[in-house]
Structures are given as C-alpha cells and as structure tokens.
Amino acid sequence: MVGTIRWYLNYSGQPAKRLLKPAAGNLALHIGAGLLQACEWIVQLTSAVTQDLASTRASPTSVAEPKPLFAYINCIRGYAVLLVITCHLTYEFGNLPYPVHRLTVTG
Amino acid sequence: MQLFSLASAVTLLMSWHHETASLGTARVMPFFARRFFRIAPAYYAAAALYYWLSPPIGGFDAMQLMASLLFVNAWSPALMPTLGHAWSVVPGGWSIGVEFTFYLLFPLFATAVSSLGRGVAVLVGCIAAGYLANRLAYPALLRSYGTAEVGNFLFFWFPNQMAVFATGGVLFFAIRKLAAPRHAAIRRSLGRYGTMLSAIAAAVFFSSAFLPLAHWTGQPGKLVPASLFVCLPLAGFILVLSAAPNSPFVNRYAVALGKVSFSAYLLHFAVLQLVVHDFPSVFHTSATGLAAVAAFAGAWCVVMSAIFAASYCTYNGLELPMMKLGSRLVRLRWPRPSIAI
User: Fold this and answer.
1) Predicted ipTM > 0.95
2) A19 and A49 in one domain?
3) A97: which chain B residues are within 8 Å (Cβ-Cβ)?
4) Nearest-CA neighbor of B238 among A85, A82, A71, A64?
5) Distance CA B213, CA B174 (A)
6) Which domain holds residue A36?
7) Could you identify which of A82, B83, B225, B334 might form a hypothetical disulfide with B214, taking C-beta atoms 3.0 to 4.6 angstroms apart as the criterion?
8) Which residues 16-45 of A have a C-beta within 8 angstroms of B?
9) Which of A31-35, A42-46, A102-106 reaches the highest mean pLDDT?
10) What is the pLDDT of residues B125-144, one digit of tens each?
11) Are A76 and A100 in the same domain?
C-alpha cells in the first residue's frame, strides 16, 4: 500500500507538481498541489509507523538503538498533551463513574 | 498543564544557557522573535478555524479578538474568559496567554535563576507573590464576577502559575547537576530503577485527584494548592527520565506526539467537537457505569488517532515552515556576532 502510494508520487505526483508551478494563480491547481503534499506526509507517517512495527517484530532481542539526545523532553510534551486531551474528553461523558472522572480530569 | 509549563521552563533555560555558552551572551530580541514565530502563526490559524467552526454566540467582539491575538487574554476573567458562553477566540487560549507572559518575563527569570540555590529562592518568592496576588485579587474580583468565575480565573492566571515555571527553573539545575560526572553513580541508579521511580511519580500525581487540595494558592480554608502539589511528582518524573533514557516511558510514540503537541493542543477541541460531540450516539456518550468506561476508552483511541493525524499535517505544513521563517528573519536582522579565537 505504502509502496503503491510512493510509486504514484514518484512517477505521477512529481511531474504533476512541475506542471502545477507555471499556473500559480489557479486555485484548483494549488489545492491539487496541497493534496499531493498531504499524500507525501501520509506516506511518511505510514512508513514511520510500519517501520516501527516491523523493527519491533523482526528484532525483539536486538540491542536497542541509542535514543536521541533529550528525547525525554518531547516525551514530556507528549504526555502533557495526552493528559489535557483526556481531561477534555472526560466532559463529553457525563455519566462516567465519579472516581474515573476524578482520575481522568487530573491533567 | 503543569507538565507543559515545566517542560517549557526547562527547554527555554536549556536554549538560553546554550546560547550564553556559545556566544558569550543570550540575545533577548532574537529570543522574542523566535518565540513569536513558534507560537503565533499556528495560534492565529486556530483562531480563524474556531471562528468558522463555532462562531461567537454573543457576536463578534473586537476587544476580545485583539486581547487574544496580543496574548493579554489571561489578565481578566472577561477576556480569559471564565464567564459562561463568552467568546474564547481559541479554546484553551488562557494557557497560551500565560505562556506568553512567561516569555515576556523570561530574560529576567533566566538572569535571576542562575543556580540551584537562586532557583529555590525564586520559587519561594513566586509562591509568596502568587499567594499575595490571589488574596488581594479575590475580594476585588468578587465585586464584579461570580465565585466560580473568580475561582477559575485565579487558578489559571499567571501569578498562580508562575510558581510552576519557577519549579521548572529548579528542575533545570537539578537535571544539570545530575548530568555532572561526579553524579554518575546516582545517574546509574536512576537508570536502573528509572521505570519504577517514574511509575511511582505518576501514581503520586494521579493520587492528587483524591486529595483535598486548594484550587488556587491562598484559597481560604485550604493550605496546599493543587497546581503546586502536582509539580513535585511531575518534576520528579522529568528528573528521572532525564537520567533514564532507556526507560519505556521514553519511547518513539511519545516523542512523535510530543513533537506535534502544540498543534495537538490547538486542534483537540475541534476534533472533540467534530468527532465525539457531534456524534453522541456513535460514541455512547450517555452510557453509564462500566459501559461508560468502555465507551470512553474507545472514544479516546479514535480521538487520539484523529488528533495525531491532523496535528502531523499542521506541524509540517504550518508550524515548521513558520519556525524556519522566524529563524531566517532572526539571522538576517540579528546576525550572530563573530567570536575571536
């Protein structure tokens, strides 16, 4: 699936982008270019996730790669936004048991 | 939110000290410019999105818009707003206003917090100032607003939150001390027991939900404020992770979410509205008991996936280009001084 999208972008998307450039004023062509860019991001995102899963499955006993410097800072931000989203989602469920409600709104 | 504030204080101090070490001095104007380009473009885009998605019930308010766009919306209950049905411009925008107040004061803060001891002194000063400001503001604000509105405002506003940023200052120097070669033994121990210690810190944090803590510093009848109490386990959590990079708490999924966290923060209200709020029967939002917990867990997975996908696009399409533009403008306007060797 990822390979198909990548092939499409390589052999179809890139020439299309080049064709789009001269007609910069055309809104429809701009939207087309934007969609192609979005496709590229989706491919990158999908590749990243599938690579993660593949590496987990393929080498469960291999030595872990050294983590990038200060990766923990990004992790902290990730956990922070996770807590905030969980907190605000709680208010959509008005009948959650009270202890669960108290716990999920902590963030 | 306290976790965001702690991370913000630590990373800003890291950048500030790095610049001081490499250039001999940290430059204030480039700092402000970079912060503006980091936050403002996505924030302004979010303001346009929310205006379209949920137009203000009471109509357009130019004052409210200007206060939000200039990041001074966290200085009044009417502008924050903690009043029901008032236009918030960007939901959750209070935290951006508070963060910008911290940016404005950051050069002073970074100059004052130059060691662990001074960091502790500034923290004590911030707690005292927050207590005083809240106790003075409470009766004054009650003349114009309701008790709940004032209570929420005094929790959110900068004087109540500044102790959290100050805790970040103490944490920064604790992390630095821990990274010193002479503390290698402590670091090894933290690395070995990092997962367990992080889990304990998380458990203490969540236990705060069931403790009778004050909503805001100085609230009558309650001694320990919630915002300050949770800082201790959260700071401990960060400190342990800094010394335990191989802990399962430091993983690529959390890193990926952290990178897009600002976009995720701005967009999550829209996703919650479009996905859950507008389709209550799909997500069984009125379920009760265990069914409600299961429905909540299901919705959480859907919402998190949608927010991550949307944030990934806005991070790459808006945030990163604007950050690069900001850096380019900073380099043009304030070129780095050459250092004589």
Assistant:
1) no
2) yes
3) 289, 292-293
4) A71
5) 26
6) 2-58
7) B225
8) 37-38, 41, 45
9) A102-106
10) 999 999 999 999 999 999 98
11) yes
